[in-house]
Amino acid sequence: MRLREFQELIERIYGDKDRGRGQEKTYMWFAEEVGELTRALRRDDEENLAEEFADVLAWLTTLASIRGVDLEEVVLQKYGAGCPYCEAVPCAC
Amino acid sequence: MRLREFQELIERIYGDKDRGRGQEKTYMWFAEEVGELTRALRRDDEENLAEEFADVLAWLTTLASIRGVDLEEVVLQKYGAGCPYCEAVPCAC
Hints:
The structure is a homodimer.
Chain A: H1 3-21, H2 23-42, H3 46-66, H4 71-79
């Protein structure tokens, strides 16, 4: 799935709800999921780890949509040609 | 770009470096970028906002790679059929 398609999918599922809630309240959900991912990493909780990565990405994506940021466009702009600082692949910084 | 291709791109640029650094030290970079995104959101800093979203996604992705998690697979598993709780699009929870 393209990153843009994933952003559109999350927009279809949660866009109205999250825009209605607003940036700050949506950020609180994102932060909660970052916490859950942190715990799964710390505990080596393999059962929940994959799902927590999915949740953090979903909340990051919906925050980007609220702010009108196209994630696929911005990651390609920054990382599409290699490390943005040394311009090498792999990074040689 | 497919989400899987983005993960592979970040793996090629930073995989060796980030695995060498290890999960905890890599997490510190991720957390720093979450902080920078938070500040850009709070300040309505449109100049840096897009880049901070890109950085958080890149560090989340490299953490997933360190743990052997395929982001595209896990987001499709969880969100591919709509809201994982009410199964509706849009979410009706």
